[in-house]
Amino acid sequence: MSLHFDAAVLERSVDVSLEVGNGETVALLGPNGAGKSTVLAVAAGLLRPDRGRVSLDGRPLTVRGHPERDVDVPPHDRHVSLLAQEPLLFPHLSVLDNVAFGPRSRGRSRAASREAASHWIAEVGIEELAARKPAQLSGGQAQRAAVARALASDPGLLLLDEPMAALDVAVTPALRQTLRRVLEDRTVLLVTHDPLDALVLADRVVVIHDGKVVEHGPSSEVLARPRSTFTAQLAGLNMLSGTWVDGGVDTPSGHRLEGRVAGAQPEDGRPVVAVFPPHAVSIFLERPGGSPRNALDVTITHLEPHSGQIRARTDEVTADVTPQSAAELDLVPGSRVYFTVKANEVLVYAI
Ligand SMILES: Nc1ncnc2c1ncn2[C@@H]1O[C@H](COP(=O)(O)OP(=O)(O)OP(=O)(O)O)[C@@H](O)[C@H]1O
Fold first, then answer.
1. DSSP string, 30-58
2. Mutation test residue for ligand 1: of 9, 12, 29, the one with most atoms within 8 Å of CB
3. Whose C-alpha lies nearest to ligand 1, atom 16?
4. pLDDT of 235 higher than 80
5. Protein residue closest via CA to atom 30 of ligand 1
6. What is the pTM for the complete model shown?
7. Parallel, antiparallel, or unpaired: how do β-strands 80-83 and 157-161 relate?
8. Domains present along the chain, CATH in parentheses
9. Contact (Cβ atoms closer than 8 angstroms) between residue 134 and residue 95
10. Is the beta carbon of 34 within 6 A of some atom in ligand 1?
11. Could you report the per-residue pLDDT of 6-36, keeping only the tens digit for each?
């Protein structure tokens, strides 16, 4: 199903218009207070806009301030599921009953609801936990149960509000891969702060700032060539897209990177992205010999102070080095150098 969203909440200075195509995942990015949760609340029917029209596959869910009659479909009749940061499971029900609650409340029989619940519990990889109560689950397991519950009611639109924000960083890559699999072909609006979520999970991103859309486009394009300062800061990680060849990433500009595969093993010839932080990069004037590091032959385009370090940018990669080493290397825009990064600092994702 496709979402058409256009709404203004004056008290919050939010005025946003966006579309999510059938089967598409759109990431909604923006700094704190930008209006992301407000957009989700209006789409879910939890907040009434001052003006707007929200429809799912042409069916009006919210209409306000238009010539036609106002519409306000209640949350449970929207065919929309909202997955919050915190799993919000019913504490007295087992995982199975929590997940079965969605389809049951949509009028499906008890048996059909349990069958749907078992299916989704298996899909998110927590089969062995079906009989447990939420208090007996880890944060990551509880969030998986919440994902299963959101999917079990087969929503036409799934709204995800920072689904990994409350989790330990150790469990996020595995949950991200699970989401990638179960969100495929669904219509999803995903609020996130994490550019990796946008890159791995979303087809397109919409960036909002001070309640307005400031940038939108395919995820890899917006993150690789951010136009707003916010997106540039958000996309502070190095992300090099390329092709998986013989256990490494070949980029179109001729670089080769080896790293650790996060999630599913990519197949040869498939598109991947190599991700690493600027502080993991060291700069050398000569190609370091006999070292296991990745070495990228680059030309520095910009140098700027950044949090007590010097940030050296090239067309594709950014490095943060100490002011002393920048001075010792005599770095200036135009310097031809080698950016090196250890393979275990590079994460590779199939995209
Ligand atoms: N319940 C509320 N009543 C009034 N104003 C609110 C309320 N909740 C949020 N706001 C204001 O509305 C604006 C948008 O907030 P919103 O929570 O939608 O932003 P956000 O992008 O989700 O931020 P965050 O990333 O911090 O969750 C902000 O100026 C905020 O202060």
1. --TTSSHHHHHHHHHTSS--SEEEEEETT
2. 12
3. 35
4. no
5. 33
6. 0.75
7. parallel
8. 3-224 (3.40.50.300), 237-350 (2.40.50.100)
9. yes
10. yes
11. 999 999 999 999 999 999 999 998 888 899 9
